[in-house]
């Protein structure tokens, strides 16, 4: 770690920090191919991917608190609390933010432990998922369930949205998260890879009566209106989670967790 020593930590008025705050905009991130990872878990995940982190910014207190973590950073620059509040997406910043390069699937794979079988067996496809918190939580659930990838398809939120990164709690750095503008192309690619495409939606066959032992791509729709009929029709099967109580439905990230873990369990039985 190279600690950039200054007489005082950088203030919010610093010109370079002003430029970094622009990365809150998707267009700016796309043009510069840079994004911010906020919080110790996100920074830890980013540091686990080779050549991902450009620089870490920390308050003096956080630099001391997370000294072990920051030892792996290429450069650490101290900033004051107000400057950190401008870089962080959190209401109560933890005091560490990493400036990161866009993730390429090859870089993520290089940072993962090698698997004996590289054939994908479990993939999550999010179609038109607009809420960054939901997208990040689905990524986290997919990571926990041992999924091979997450695809953000259609008009889904940007994977580098600060809230998506934060909600994934570092998982965005643990498995490939890709984008596909055309959700039907994502379905076709999954099928070409040997995956059975299951649409998670209402009025389908029961999850608990579905054979989940084979390679599977789960497709999840928009938070408000679910999957459009055409996309439902493109799936091999439509599967629903039984509701035993009086709740009308489950929210997106909860439904994704149930479906992904059902597949993970069946594939490991």
Automatic annotation (TrEMBL):
Transmembrane segments: none annotated. InterPro entries: Alpha/beta_knot_MTases (IPR029028), MRM3-like_sub_bind (IPR053888), Ribosomal_eL30-like_sf (IPR029064), rRNA_Methyltransferase (IPR051259), SpoU_MeTrfase (IPR001537), SpoU_subst-bd (IPR013123), tRNA_m1G_MTases_N (IPR029026). One of its GO terms (biological process) is RNA processing. One of its GO terms (cellular component) is cytoplasm. Residues 36-106 form the RNA 2-O ribose methyltransferase substrate binding domain. GO terms for molecular function: RNA binding; RNA methyltransferase activity. It holds the Pfam family MRM3-like_sub_bind. Keywords: Methyltransferase, Transferase. Belongs to the class IV-like SAM-binding methyltransferase superfamily. RNA methyltransferase TrmH family. PANTHER family: RRNA METHYLTRANSFERASE 3, RRNA METHYLTRANSFERASE 3, MITOCHONDRIAL. This is RNA methyltransferase, TrmH family.
């Amino acid at each position: 770690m190279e600690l950039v020593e200054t007489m005082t930590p950088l203030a919010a008025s610093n010109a370079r920090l002003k430029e970094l705050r622009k990365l809150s905009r998707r267009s700016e991130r796309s043009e510069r191919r840079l994004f911010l990872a906020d919080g110790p878990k996100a920074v830890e995940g980013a540091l686990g991917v080779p050549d991902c982190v450009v620089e870490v910014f920390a308050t003096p207190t956080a630099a001391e608190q997370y000294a072990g973590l920051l030892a792996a950073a290429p450069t650490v620059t101290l900033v004051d609390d107000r400057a950190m509040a401008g870089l962080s997406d959190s209401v109560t910043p933890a005091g560490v933010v990493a400036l990161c390069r866009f993730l390429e699937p090859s870089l993520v794979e290089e940072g993962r432990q090698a698997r004996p079988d590289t054939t994908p067996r479990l993939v999550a496809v999010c179609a038109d998922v607009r809420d960054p918190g939901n997208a990040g939580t689905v990524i986290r659930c997919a990571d926990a369930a041992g999924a091979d990838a997450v695809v953000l398809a259609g008009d889904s939120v940007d994977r580098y949205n600060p809230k998506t990164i934060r909600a994934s709690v570092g998982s965005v750095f643990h498995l490939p998260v890709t984008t596909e503008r055309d959700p039907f192309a994502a379905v076709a690619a999954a099928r070409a890879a040997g995956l059975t495409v299951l649409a998670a939606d209402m009025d389908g066959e029961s999850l608990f009566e579905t054979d989940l032992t084979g390679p599977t791509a789960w497709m999840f729709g928009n938070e408000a209106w679910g999957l459009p009929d055409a996309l439902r029709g493109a799936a091999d099967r439509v599967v629903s989670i039984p509701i035993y109580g009086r709740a009308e439905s489950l929210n997106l990230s909860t439904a994704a967790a149930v479906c992904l873990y059902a597949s993970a369990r069946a594939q490991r039985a």
